[in-house]
Amino acid sequence: MSLPSALQGPFTLPVLAAPMFIASGPELVKAQCQAGIIGSFPSLNARPAALLDDWLTDLNESNAKYADANPEATVAPFAVNLIVHRSNDRLAQDLATIVKHRVPIVITSLGAREEVNDAVHSYGGIVLHDVIHDRFARKAIEKGADGLIAVAAGAGGHAGTQSPFALVQEIRQWFDGPLILSGAIAHGRSILAALAAGADMAYVGSAFLATQEANISFEYREMVLESTASDVVYSNYFTGIHGNYLRGSIEAAGLDPENLPNADPSAMSFRSRGSHEVKAWRDIWGSGQGIGVLDEPLTTRQLIQQLARQYQEAISRLNGWTTPAPVQ
Fold first, then answer.
1. What's the pLDDT tens digit per position in 120-152?
2. What is the DSSP string of 198-245?
């Protein structure tokens, strides 16, 4: 099955930048698109809701202006992430704004909704749905999603526990449409591995936390650069849904990362041992396991250029292998 035009490129890399709560804003997304990969952000990052209209106008105008001024450059489209869970009281308003701006790619999370898919399809957009296992993948396609984002073990934020190899192969047994793979992808060779495993693109998030355009604090960025996979804690305590978070931020909240209780699924915040309220994402910082390869703050363009070099080096390494002897 051929990919929808929005995913065909040409791109600098076969990468869709994952939408990160708080961290992904217009500056990061513009930098991603203008460096040749698909950028994205969660609609909920635009606060108040009316700001989403301004953000989409800015992104469209800035990318078009950059493309006009740099006709040789690859400028990729962008995506908007919608949380379609019933707890999102902004869903209808945000969806209407997305339809108004004809956003080419919409990423849906925490539920699959036919009416959302229909609205995006009404103007020719496509919907990619986050899934953590095959059962959710089947439901998403049944309800009209165009493609899937397999969120495997090691991904930042609300991640699954399955091996990326197992998850991709189960989905590929029955689905030949667009498939993007997420899970600790922060190096060019990992992007190539995602394609070799059967995905069409890689989903890269946490690597962009180290960039100058990410909308995070200096302390958050420094913790990302100083941490490794062993500093990422998987817990459902903070939002009621399992996700990956930085150990240092949990400890700073006065909690023991090794002894976190199970969550109340309806709770979206908790209180630390003091009286100060601490919230997930704002104070408890999300991160995937791939951050161990990040060692310096870069611009988004520099990071993408680095990933592209690593990707080409990985391809060259594979091309240097001898063809295996046939099985007798």
1. 999 999 999 999 999 999 999 999 999 999 999
2. T-SEEEE-GGGGGBTTS-S-HHHHHHHHH--GGGEEEESTTTSS-EEE
Residues 6+ apart with CB under 8 A from 235: 242, 243, 245, 257, 260, 263
Residue-level pLDDT at 230: 97
| Segment 135-141 long-range contacts (CB within 8 Å, at least 24 positions apart) | 136/112, 137/171, 137/175, 138/174, 139/112, 140/108, 140/112, 141/175, 141/177
Are 38 and 76 in contact by the 8 Å Cβ rule? The answer is yes
pTM of the model: 0.92
Q: Are 35 and 75 in contact (CB under 8 A)?
A: no
| Rounded (10°) angle between helices 26-34 and 300-319 | 40
Token pair in block for residue 69: 């001024």
Q: How far apart are CA 191 and CA 14, in angstroms?
A: 8
